[in-house]
Specification:
about 15% strand, single chain
């Protein structure tokens, strides 16, 4: 099964993708993590993407497509953060079939509250929330002991900008996949476990 998770920034796509990948035996493909890895390693693609990411803008399609191609698997996958617009969706269709698209819907103010409390491990990329899922020790990863940081794009002013970009470029995907009959909407404003349960219910239909 090939699954796409859609939704505004900070809605919980990454959290759900990790859980579902483990439960269903799928390969988790997070464009955000892949992009940050390219930036950290100083690759040519990373250098091109970095200037867009720092400004809270979407990275151009051609850069995203090239990175995605490097990480595709013949086994089932779950996409987190891809596709982000119609051209990416059509490019993905040329590579593989998408079975179901899950739209995680959540109000902007709820997302802002979540993201301003989010921290990321600089080494293993594990995600924490200081309110709902805090580390055992302040600002230190439970798994590898590395420092936790707040991403530049998790600051309120950047989050609001990301929401505007999302509404302009990504929302049209909802109509596109709805017309194909593979779009399913989930309320993502509740607890993580309840959201997972709702998604699994859709996937098991």
């Amino acid at each position: 099964m090939n699954i796409v998770l859609l939704g505004p920034p900070g809605v919980g796509k990454g959290t759900q993708a990790q859980i579902l990948a483990k439960k269903l035996g799928l390969k988790w493909i997070s464009t955000g993590d892949i992009l940050r890895k390219e930036v950290a390693e100083g690759t040519e693609l990373g250098k091109k993407a970095e200037k867009y990411m720092k400004e809270g803008k979407l990275v151009p399609d051609d850069i995203i497509i090239e990175i995605i191609k490097k990480h595709l698997s013949s086994s089932g996958v779950i996409f987190d953060g891809f596709p982000r617009n119609l051209s990416q969706a059509k490019a993905l269709e040329k590579i593989m079939d998408v079975d179901k698209v899950i739209f995680l819907n959540c109000p902007e103010e709820v997302v802002i509250f979540r993201l301003t409390n989010r921290r990321i491990c600089v080494k293993c990329n594990r995600v924490y929330n200081l309110i709902s899922n805090p580390p055992k020790n302040d600002e230190v990863c439970d798994v590898c002991g590395s420092k936790l940081v707040q991403r530049e794009d998790d600051k309120p002013e950047v989050i609001r900008k990301r929401f505007r970009v999302y509404n302009e470029e990504t929302k049209p995907l909802l109509s596109y996949y709805r017309e194909k009959g593979i779009l399913y909407e989930i309320d993502a404003s509740g607890e993580v476990s309840e959201i997972t349960k709702s998604i699994l219910g859709v996937l098991n239909e």
